[in-house]
Design a protein that fits this description.
40% of the residues lie in helices and 17% in strands. By secondary structure, it is an alpha/beta fold. Bound molecules: 5'-deoxyadenosine (5AD) and iron/sulfur cluster.
């Protein structure tokens, strides 16, 4: 679902109102039954005014989505100006991305983030998409070197949600809380067979109108076909790194080419693709990251999924150094300049690295535009321990602002996504 910039009511008419958005007046239809008066703050979508909010909330949202002033172009070095020019003409090259990733000067970084934020606003306005993730099993047959769910980690306490519980959690999130985009995630757990998963997807789709991303790892094509036919819409599956040697060293028994073949198969089956990499893997270079960003676009990704490596106990990478948060922001900005219309989520690992809500705001200001909320029932949440100190937004303020119910809210989302759900 979406969060949009607030508007202030200037005049109330019969069935419509004149509002001021970003200082400009516009007439919009009234899509709610609340009593409205001059001076009230509202959220609107396209032609409709959809929710009344109080002034404090309005100010918080305005601050969250504010424009950052760009430095005058003529004060920037030629190289950065050229990169921005190439991005504007949709011909950002790998060298340009490497240049971005190597910027250290804080003034230039501010100019870069402001540019990425401007590109976000110009291409997808102030829509913040909210996703809800249900982590339904922490069993995993794989042994990825960075992950707390790896099968060699004997310290984890395993759980599986029952199919009815997964369905009930999903349906409640959609029908009672207003979520419309769900991610069903697990380790690679073959206990959930094609039949079981198909049934779960079917049942959710029967009772709740929503977009479902699957994040369940490797499966044969015929299984992904069955899931698609049951109503799954997208897949969230990272390639983790585009460097084949690094990939092989982190994923015992697996190769990058197999992973890319899976992603291409998913694309052929017409899944909406969400993929990307971990930033800060040992031995990963800026050249690797630039290749990762190019690959995200080449694969036809709708929603890049990226995040920093977080060192995790009981894994081979437990002593990894945290990356500099600016590297994360540079990757976000480069992605926004390269994929102007992408949904670009602030992932939980970014919030974990950068200190929660503060980090979230910084990521929006560098070009991100989506968030992921955790919908996993409380009793399991701590056991889905992919990495240490995982940030959890208990307050979920954005949920209150961004999740609406009813037909209009679907219209809003579908307009914004460009396809129906
Ligand atoms: N730090 C950051 N991200 C991690 N993931 C797994 N372990 C870690 C970690 N320690 C990410 C992987 C995977 C996603 C579900 O979680 O990129 O694709
Ligand atoms: Fe399993 Fe995914 Fe963790 Fe790898 S990253 S160990 S596949 S849960």
């Amino acid at each position: 679902m979406c969060l949009t910039i607030p508007a202030k009511i200037l005049e109330v008419r019969e069935g419509s109102a004149v509002v001021s958005v970003n200082g400009k007046p516009a007439e919009v239809l009234i899509g709610i039954s609340d009593k409205l008066s001059i001076g009230d703050y509202v959220l609107m979508t396209g032609d409709y005014l959809i929710k009344k909010i109080d002034e404090t909330e309005a100010q918080e949202i305005i601050d969250l989505l504010r424009s950052t002033p760009s430095a005058p172009r003529e004060t920037l070095p030629d190289e950065l100006r050229e990169v921005m020019q190439n991005a504007a003409q949709n011909r950002l090259r790998k060298d340009d991305i490497e240049y971005i990733l190597n910027i250290e000067d804080q003034q230039l970084l501010s100019a870069l983030y402001a540019e990425a934020n401007t590109v976000r606003k110009a291409n997808i306005k102030d829509h913040i998409c909210v996703h809800g993730i249900i982590e339904f099993s922490n069993y995993c047959r794989n042994n990825c070197a960075y992950c707390g769910l790896r099968c060699d980690n004997k310290k984890k306490k395993n759980y599986r949600m029952a199919p009815e519980e997964i369905i009930a959690t999903a349906v409640d999130a959609v029908n009672n809380r207003g979520y419309k985009i769900l991610v069903l995630q697990s380790g690679e757990d073959l206990h959930f067979t094609k039949e079981i998963l198909t049934e779960i997807i079917n049942k959710i789709k029967e009772s709740a109108k929503c977009f479902i991303y699957l994040s369940i790892g490797d499966r044969p094509e015929e299984e992904y076909l069955a899931f698609k036919e049951a109503g799954a819409n997208g897949v969230l599956y990272r390639f983790e790194t585009s460097n084949p040697e690094l990939f092989a060293s982190l994923h015992p028994g697996h190769t990058l080419s197999e992973r890319l073949e899976q992603l291409r198969m998913m694309k052929r089956l017409d899944y909406v693709l969400s993929t990307g990499m971990i930033v800060g893997l040992p031995g990963q270079t800026k050249n690797d990251l630039a290749n990762d960003i190019m690959l995200i676009k080449e694969l036809g990704t709708f929603m890049p999924s990226i995040g920093p490596l977080i060192a995790t106990q009981n894994t081979p990478l437990q002593n990894a150094e945290p990356i500099d948060f600016d590297l994360m922001l540079k990757v976000i900005a480069a992605l926004r300049l390269h994929l102007k219309e992408a949904r670009l989520p602030v992932t939980t690992a970014m919030e974990t690295l950068g200190g929660g809500e503060d980090a979230r705001q910084k990521c929006f200001m560098a070009g991100a535009n989506s968030i992921m909320f955790n919908l996993t029932p409380d009793k399991y949440r701590a056991e889905y321990h992919i990495y240490d100190h995982k940030f959890y937004d208990a307050e979920k303020r954005y949920e209150k602002w961004a999740l609406f119910k009813g037909d209009l809210s679907y219209e809003m989302l579908e307009n914004e996504l460009g396809f129906s759900i």
